[in-house]
Amino acid sequence: MKLNKKLIPKGYYCYEYVGKKIVNCPFWSIDENKPRQQNGHCGYLKKGDWNLNKEKIWRIVNKNTGKVMGKFKSAVEIGLPLSTLWDQTKMCNINNEEIL
């Protein structure tokens, strides 16, 4: 499949409503061989929850001050499965315009 980001739905999820029908992003899938809530996959990123949770892309920020608390860490190091592709939440950040 050609990686055309125009095919990625608008909004924060890997699906959108077209009329009354839910249409999934053509790049989103579930890997049944991975544990539940860690089995989402994005064909556009060519990564799954299991990959994203190992990357040092997460940081802890003090919600009151906005101050970054420490270095970037992986979700595995923090001890939280932070990637939610499994729940069809976008991790690509493409077409994230809010739909009103």
Overview of this protein structure:
It is a single chain. Helices cover 8% and strands 16% of the residues. The chain is globular, with a radius of gyration of 15 Å. The chain has helices at residues 49-52, 75-78; strands at 15-18, 21-24, 28-30, 40-42, 47-48. The longest helix is centred in the middle third of the chain and has 4 residues, at 49-52. The protein is mostly beta strands.
Q: What secondary-structure arrangement, pairings included, does this model have?
A:
Elements (H helix, E strand, L loop, with lengths): L14 E4 L2 E4 L3 E3 L9 E3 L4 E2 H4 L22 H4 L22
Antiparallel strand pairs: 1-2, 3-4, 4-5
Strand order of the largest sheet: 3-4-5
CA radius of gyration is 15 Å
Largest sheet, in brief, is: 3 strands, antiparallel
- CA(first)-CA(last) distance: 30 Å
In total, the number of strands is: 5
Query: Which runs of at least 5 residues are low in confidence (pLDDT < 50)?
Result: none
Mean pLDDT over the residues:
89
Order of helices and strands: EEEEEHH
Helix content: under 10%
Question: In a few lines, what is going on in this structure?
Answer:
By secondary structure, this protein is mainly beta. It has two helices and five strands; from the N terminus they run βββββαα. It is globular.
